[in-house]
Give the backbone structure.
Amino acid sequence: MAEQVFPLNHPFEYRGASYIEFKARRPKVRDLRNFIKNVDKDGVAAMEKVLADLCEVDEKIIAEVDIEDFTPMKAWFEGFLKPMLGE
């Protein structure tokens, strides 16, 4: 699967643009590297950044996502980490 679609239960507008879903590309090693580099400083900010990169949107847009919609996006990315952690 080349991309994952996340339909939003709580669509929103930000700076005149409407967001009803996000499409995320599969993570690459560079995404993992950037996430690991930032996660110890601020875990939430690191997750916002990696999801923004994967969805190809500004981090400020991800910061506006309802927590209910953020949870499956976060879980999807974490699913790529589990095999590396032996889980």
